[in-house]
Design brief:
The complex is a heterodimer of chains A (about 200) and B (about 190). With about 200 residues, chain A is of the alpha+beta class. In chain A, about 35% of the residues lie in helices and about 25% in strands. Chain A has one domain (about 30-195): Glutaredoxin, CATH 3.40.30.10. In chain A, a hairpin with a 5-residue loop joins strand 2 and strand 3. The model of chain A has no long low-confidence stretch (mean pLDDT about 90). Chain B contains four helices and eight strands, in the order ααβαβββββββα. Chain B is rod-shaped, with a radius of gyration of 33 Å. The chains are: A alpha+beta (about 200), B alpha/beta (about 190).
């Protein structure tokens, strides 16, 4: 009789704690800049590092982390790709549902082969995209990407937007990030997007 | 030496020694009470003085942009892209804004064109937010100003807590110094009745 009473009390406490946690649980706050309401990510088709067409809308069901950069970049691009690599390692198996995509802002030098060699240094699963100037310019306009060649010459550098765009599994543009967002913060947000939040 | 002899007498049950010990204890107690009283009074005085100085400084230097961290909305009105292309500044959008740490800037895009502000990409008909969590002055690239730049100045919020810390940080050392000063002052003996 006494043990039944104790069991009842324990169950009641657990239930109360559960209800309390549910009532007072704070909703998840994304680390990036939240686009509200989300808008459908503008679709595009470009060529990946294997020479195959890559269509954004075909990535539905996965989270896409989209970044615009180039292989000769001395600073922000390798730093962002290193962050992507960390996220991939941190997320383990979950990262199979994340597409890490680099769209070149330097199509003149970034051929499919060069993109393949460059990305292999980070993770061979990363996608590198290039295309005709016309196709790329359309993508830049759709995502508000600025790119301009600085000091023309054989070893020129390109000034470009360094934002990271997060597209959810439904194909909506949900968040943007500055290049200094930590891999931990990005990984947490990506997990939430994968959960459908 | 004298005290040792006195305590020795006490332990032997000497009444005179016991009396001396009682007198000594009473004097010590009175001395400690005086010191504690002075310390307390000095600290109270120091804190009051610091509070008064802090209030005066606050009233003189008060910044109208101070507020508790909040969400600040910036609306990009319809037709902004057209105005900017024509070199005109949208009248409802300032060229710079001042914030406090902890503020969130919510940029709402009512225009038919997409816009950007530094790290923010704001698709038409949507909104994007920026958390301002560090003291800094930003000059962000911006698509809704003809000058293509937008200034954000973020400074530390002046909260009640900050003011309280200020009073404590200045009041406690001030009280301590006054207490130290009071200790070197001679104790005023009460006139015996």
């Amino acid at each position: 009789m006494k043990s039944k009473f104790l069991l009842l009390v324990t169950v009641a406490i657990v239930a109360m704690v559960g209800v309390g946690a549910g009532l007072f649980a704070r909703p998840y706050t994304f680390h990036g800049s939240l686009i509200d309401p989300p808008v459908p990510a503008v679709d595009f088709t470009l060529t990946d590092q294997t020479g195959q067409p890559f269509r954004l809308s075909e990535q539905a069901g996965n989270v896409v982390l989209l970044f615009f950069g180039y292989t000769s970049c001395p600073d922000v691009c390798p730093a962002t790709l290193t962050q992507f690599k960390r996220i991939r390692t941190e997320m383990g198996k979950e990262a199979d549902r994340v597409r890490f995509v680099l769209v070149t802002v330097d199509p003149q030098r970034d051929t499919a082969e060069r993109l393949r060699q460059y990305l292999a240094g980070f993770n061979s699963s990363f996608v590198g995209l290039t295309g005709t100037w016309l196709d790329l310019d359309q993508v830049y306009r759709s995502y508000g990407v600025y790119q301009a060649i600085l000091v023309p010459g054989p070893a020129y550098t390109v000034d470009h937007t360094d934002r990271v765009y997060a597209i959810d599994p439904k194909g909506n543009l949900r968040l943007t990030y500055t290049s200094d967002t930590t891999a931990d913060d990005l990984a947490q947000d990506v997990r939430q997007l994968l959960k459908g939040k | 030496m004298i005290w040792r002899r006195m305590y020795a007498n006490c332990s032997k049950g000497n009444n005179a020694g016991r009396a001396i010990q009682l007198v000594h204890r009473a004097r010590m107690k009175s001395f400690i009470n005086t010191i504690l009283g002075r310390l307390t009074l000095s600290l109270l005085f120091g804190l009051t003085l610091a509070w008064a100085m802090s209030e005066i400084a606050f009233l003189i230097l008060k910044d109208s942009s101070d507020h508790v961290p909040q969400r600040v909305e910036l609306i990009i009105p319809a037709g902004t892209a057209g105005r900017v292309a024509a070199g005109e500044a949208p009248p409802s959008i300032p060229t710079d804004m001042t914030f406090v740490v902890g503020d969130t800037l919510l940029v709402k895009n009512d225009d038919s064109a997409d816009h950007e502000l530094g790290p923010l990409w704001i698709p038409a008909g949507s909104s994007a937010s920026l958390s301002l969590d560090a003291v800094q002055s930003y000059a962000y690239a911006c698509s809704f100003q003809p000058g293509k730049y937008f200034g954000l100045d973020v400074h530390e919020a002046l909260t009640l807590g900050t003011r309280l810390y200020g009073i404590l940080y200045s009041g406690i050392p001030l009280g301590g110094l006054i207490a130290l000063y009071s200790l070197v002052m001679p104790v005023k003996k009460k006139a015996e009745k």
